[in-house]
């Protein structure tokens, strides 16, 4: 059994209405999984919060926390980061999807299977997600699409790139 991993899931935004509701700036790929009535969250200070109600407004969660009955009370939480502890081996709801924390730290192999670098970050850009790969020549961005990254093996701790020139090297 894998241990627990602390995951940032959101940041408390501005209050909404007078009943203690607040917008959440989502920082998780699966907000429907993380923001459920009765779910426990933790602030960076270590203080625990429980979600009393959750609704969605224009694609963003609007939540109420137990013990924060009005606008003034919930305003005191504005800007606070919200964390949860999840099993380290937890997988996303959809197959062929990965959490950023699962990809960061993976070895990057070229098409021939030779070590080429390490994934240090995942960027969520408008066109697609990109892996930030640290190579001996510096950081490179690799679009995280199956045509360019055909193999992800979490158990082996590696991703393998397709045989496409220019992914990790500078072209003259």
From TrEMBL:
Protein origin, superkingdom: Bacteria
Subcellular location: Cytoplasm
Membrane spanning residue stretches: none
Gene3D superfamilies: PRC-barrel domain (2.30.30.240), RimM (2.40.30.60)
Domain named Ribosome maturation factor RimM PRC barrel: residues: 102-162
Keyword line: Chaperone, Cytoplasm, Ribosome biogenesis, rRNA processing
Main location: cytoplasm
Domain RimM N-terminal: 9-85
Family annotation (PANTHER family): RIBOSOME MATURATION FACTOR RIMM
Subunit organization: Binds ribosomal protein uS19.
Written domain comment of the UniProt record: The PRC barrel domain binds ribosomal protein uS19.
Free-text function comment from the UniProt entry: An accessory protein needed during the final step in the assembly of 30S ribosomal subunit, possibly for assembly of the head region. Essential for efficient processing of 16S rRNA. May be needed both before and after RbfA during the maturation of 16S rRNA. It has affinity for free ribosomal 30S subunits but not for 70S ribosomes.
HAMAP family noted in UniProt: Ribosome_mat_RimM
Family, as annotated: Belongs to the RimM family.
NCBIfam families tied to this protein: 16S_RimM (TIGR02273)
Name by which UniProt lists this protein: Ribosome maturation factor RimM
């Amino acid at each position: 059994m894998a241990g627990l991993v602390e995951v940032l899931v959101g940041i408390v935004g501005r209050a909404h209405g007078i009943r203690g509701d607040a917008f959440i700036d989502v920082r998780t790929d699966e907000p429907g999984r993380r923001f459920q009535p009765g779910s426990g969250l933790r602030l960076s200070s270590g203080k625990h919060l429980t979600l009393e109600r959750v609704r969605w407004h224009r694609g963003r969660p609007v939540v109420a926390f137990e013990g924060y009955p009005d606008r003034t009370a919930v305003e005191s939480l504005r800007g606070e980061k919200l964390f949860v502890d999840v099993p380290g081996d937890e997988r996303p709801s959809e197959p062929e999807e990965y959490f950023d924390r699962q990809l960061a730290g993976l070895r990057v192999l070229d098409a021939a299977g030779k070590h080429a670098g390490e994934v240090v970050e995942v960027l969520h850009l408008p066109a697609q997600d990109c892996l930030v790969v640290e190579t001996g020549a510096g950081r490179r961005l690799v679009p995280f699409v199956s045509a360019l990254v055909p193999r992800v093996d979490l158990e082996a701790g590696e991703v393998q790139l397709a045989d496409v020139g220019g992914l990790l090297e500078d072209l003259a």
